Amino acid sequence: MADKVIFRDLEVRTVLGNDSWERKKAQPLVITAEIHTSISSAGKSDKVTESVHYGIACKRVTAFAESNHGLQSLEAFAEGIARVSLEVTDRALAVYVFARKPRALLHAKYAGVEIYRTRKEVFGCWSDAPEDEEDSAQEAAPAAVERAAAVDAAGSLGSEDRILVKKLSLSTIIGVNLWERHYKQTVDLDLVLHTAKPAKGAVGAHDKVPRYRNFRTVVDAVTEVVEKTSYRTVEALATA
What we know:
Helices cover 29% and strands 27% of the residues. The protein is an alpha+beta fold. It is elongated and about 70 Å long.
């Protein structure tokens, strides 16, 4: 298992979205990143230069988020965060990014994106330095093990990205009791969309999100279905 340098719930403000009102004013975003690396060398030397400096990572992520990046989608923004995190040092082997937008939807806690990217996926290679043919097998073996651990740590995120909507609150008729058949109740839904990873490309190359995985389009469709239903069980509602 790879070691991780983590920062959670980093709050930034950025202009992100394709609606006219979203392009006028910076909105709050919350970012969590888990940078996969090996801390064995830094643990022995007690030097942060032999690890991933989380302070530098946070500053660079914040600078990117608050820059004039011109991105519209949360997916492309998360890709940008991944790239910036991995650029801190070539000791950063992979990164998990969870970016969420608290004000994205009126009736939900947040909309968010989860992605996992290895250094090789983003830059096409594991190291910034050219490989030395004279590197001994003894030196190369630990690096190969660390890289394999970083790849394995992705789990299902090795082949997919996730779009999340947390606590979408809707009103509907649900239940078997008499009063439940007459009065609408509030139901809270958590939605997770599993999507294939985009093809390799520069940040912003995949900034146009198809309607079928646009979280607003999905939420609109779910809202329309749920508010018209009158199921007796939550199981029937969940599978509708």
